[in-house]
## 1
Amino acid sequence: MLTKAPVSGFDPLASGRLALFTGKGGVGKSTVVAALAMEAGRRGRRPLVIEPGHRASKQAVFGVAHVGHAPVDVGGGEHACNIELDEALRDYVADHVPVAALARRIAESSSLARFFEAAPAVGEVLTLQRIEQLMAARAHDGGARWDPILVDFDATGHALMFLELPKVFEGLVPGGPVRRLLDGFSALLSDPTATRLHLVTVPARQPVQETLELHDKLATEHAVRLGGLFVNRVPARPWEGDPGAIDALLRQLDGEPARDLRLLRRAIDRHAAAQAAMARLDVLPLPRVALPQLSTRLDRRALTALGRIAGGGA
């Protein structure tokens, strides 16, 4: 079961077709993204989760055998895909080289592949190209094939590199398809009706500090509209009474009762530390969603419940 959590009132799925997610590694970002995708599917939309690179986390989260470069149904109407460098390179060449045979020879060149793997920011450009393709895909009814598209970045450094692509290539690429791609991306990032960047953290000292620093950097150096702040794995309050009563009993008891009380006291301390860490986030002008710590194994039922909370309880 999920521990009860208050409804936030903030709905991250209400605006912006492209939702980007970033945060320190290990904060459960992939779980949050998967839960929101399931909530979007529950609402009758066509969600697609994109995972740059091939971390295979979506296979584990959704409980499917394989997630690859092409979107795959992961159940309930949600789809997911990885963006793999070699496949993204083939897509890019196919889009910009009109002769199919020549495009195939270029894409299969081992020396070119090694160059792209070594060159800085090229992987991000190819990722951007793939996202643009998926954004442009249409469904049979003429509407967007994927809505929303949720991008699960590996960590904050990867997300910042992606956001800084237009600056990295400024002056280096004056024209051509890459320039058009970057200009289109800049316009997409700065469009508040299209894109939101959401932050994910956990209620612990170091992740909170990194989140505060990340927010400052994003707010001062990037035009992307920030969305919400998801605080994942918030422990439930384990004791409603006075912790001093526990301390008094511990001075009188020993054996198994004392061990149980010490466990309770540690849970109280963990909850207090989490609340103190969360209080530091009060300075951020972002809607906050507190997601409870799961008290069950991660499955579709738990993700569905978590998605209802992450989506504002709508």
Note: Residues 3-7 have pLDDT under 50 and may be disordered.
## 2
Amino acid sequence: METGGKQTHKKITLRDISERTGLSINTVSKVLNKKPYYTKEVEQKVLQAISELGYIVNLNAAGLRSGSTRTVAIIFDDIASPFYSYMTDAIAKRFDAAGYDTVIFSNYGRNAYVDEALLRRVLARKPDGIMSFLEPSPETVRLIRRHGVPFLIFGRCGEKYGLPSVHADTEVGGRIAAEHLFERNYTHTAFVGSEAGIGVGEDRLRGYAKVLEEHGIALADTPVLYVKELGYEKVAQELLRANVNGIFCYSDIIAFKVISQLKKAGKIVGKDYGIVGYDNIQSMLELPEMITTIDVGNEALAVGGAARMLGLLQGNDEDVFPEDGIKPFLVKGPTT
């Protein structure tokens, strides 16, 4: 309706739907909230009226009444990451099938943890549960416990925080990567990480270091470089200065960027050096260049992560994986 050139909008209510359908407000509410019992004919009447009137459910109000918003929040630090996007899509589809919406939160790479400020933003949206690709800070753990919202750490171990988690054995992944490099005679190696101190990165580095030790090489005598500290250009310069011939990267994204930088210096992957990435994002995307990488059991993780979160929402804290967890495995590229 327009008044004096201004468009005004009347808020559509359950009463409007009731009057349009000839059904009671209580019956309309049952259909909207999917509560028994009503016939298919009644459901069709309500859905048609909703479409004609343009009714939008007020989820905030519904959540206050029921104590549930039927939403799960997912937290990560890099919204552009193909790995996060793929895994979030696979998980969210399973939430949707169970009747839950997914809300995405990111700290846009500000840090590698869920800090208290970010968690407060998430909690303000009243999700029924929270799934995080990032580990929580100590302050965040206290806030999680205070509010009691189910919180699942995904892709990282939650044991040290006393929180449920679904993850692969990333130390094993680091070991597999290093073993492959040595098998291919890339014995003068380096590790390129994202940021120092990240738990999952330290686990990968630990597995890598154990293989070095088995070959009589101390980690202290091996380049360990972090792109957040140095930047990719400086990382490449350090790799060239150290004359390494084997590189293990924290992620595929880092591996591809290192390859790009070394190519500028005339170094060709598979000829001048070998490289192993992590996450197997090439299985998710059609990439023009394939590399050797570690797959963490992406599909099994997505299925297990969604199942564990849905279990927590029902008050079930039972782990969905066997005691030895999911084992990473090597995916060989054509050059390394």
Note: DSSP finds 13 helices and 15 strands in the chain.
